[in-house]
């Protein structure tokens, strides 16, 4: 019996138990994960993966490096009003993600998922000079999340998985051409939840 064979059987057995229970599972090893589990950002696929405790510890060191998987941090920081006009994105509900290669993307939710635009990196640098906390945003795994819809004034540094959660809320609640009556109360609840988690 080889160690590789035993490990493969253990992973398959864990995956089978998780699937049978209908529980959420680690995307790397298929072990069950708690409701408040960690996430990893897959730089190759540009997506967030669920991670169990051991896998999140394993990839914690890659957080500061340039590994394939990066541990998504959990900090949430409410900022004072940030004038994002210099970034040239005329959308009131949007998040800005600086990338490891120096580029910056803006993404806004829609009924079909996230829309994406490239943002002028020099504009991001200028904005970071006026709001120094933006210089601390970890590339790929954190974002500046903005909501100025209906006169609101929310500006946050959040983990990238919060942004994807917000996109999922919009997609789930959108009705008809204009979004319907459920969309904005759901977005407001999302930001209330951010305040509670911070």
SSE layout:
Layout: H1 3-21, E1 38-42, E2 47-51, H2 53-58, E3 69-71, E4 77-78, E5 93-98, E6 104-110, E7 113-119, H3 121-130, E8 142-147, E9 154-159, H4 160-173, H5 183-197
Helix pairs in contact: 4-5
Name the features:
198 residues; alpha+beta; 2 domains; 5 helices; globular
Order of helices and strands: HEEHEEEEEHEEHH
Count of individual domains: 2
How many β-strands, per DSSP? 9
Low-confidence stretches: 1-12
In brief, what are we looking at here?
The chain has 198 residues and is of the alpha+beta class.
Describe the structure.
With 198 residues, the chain is an alpha+beta fold. The chain folds into two domains: 3-71, no CATH class; 77-197, no CATH class. 32% of the residues lie in helices and 24% in strands. The protein has five helices and nine strands; from the N terminus they run αββαβββββαββαα. The chain has helices at 3-21, 53-58, 121-130, 160-173, 183-197; strands at residues 38-42, 47-51, 69-71, 77-78, 93-98, 104-110, 113-119, 142-147, 154-159. It has a six-stranded antiparallel beta sheet with strand order 4-9-8-5-6-7. Strands 2-1-3 form a three-stranded antiparallel beta sheet. A hairpin with a 6-residue loop joins strand 8 (142-147) and strand 9. Helix 4 packs antiparallel against helix 5 (183-197). It is globular and about 45 Å long. The termini are far apart. The model is unreliable at 1-12 (pLDDT under 50).
């Amino acid at each position: 019996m080889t160690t590789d064979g035993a490990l493969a059987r253990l992973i398959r057995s864990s995956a089978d138990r998780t699937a049978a229970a209908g529980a959420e599972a680690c995307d790397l090893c298929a072990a069950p994960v708690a409701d408040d589990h960690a996430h990893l950002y897959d730089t190759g696929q540009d997506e967030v993966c669920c991670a169990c405790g051991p896998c999140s510890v394993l990839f914690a060191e890659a957080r500061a490096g340039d590994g394939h998987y990066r541990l998504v941090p959990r900090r949430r920081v409410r900022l004072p009003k940030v004038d994002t006009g210099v970034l040239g994105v005329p959308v009131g509900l949007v998040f800005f993600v600086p990338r490891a290669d120096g580029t910056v993307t803006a993404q806004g939710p829609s009924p079909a998922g996230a829309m994406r635009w490239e943002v002028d990196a020099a504009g991001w640098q200028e904005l970071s000079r006026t709001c120094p906390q933006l210089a601390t945003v970890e590339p790929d795994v954190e974002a500046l999340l903005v909501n100025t819809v209906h006169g609101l004034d929310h500006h946050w540094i959040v983990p990238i998985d919060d942004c994807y959660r917000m996109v999922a809320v919009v997609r789930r609640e959108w009705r008809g051409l204009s979004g319907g009556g459920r969309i904005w109360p759901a977005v407001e609840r999302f930001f209330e939840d951010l305040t509670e988690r911070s």
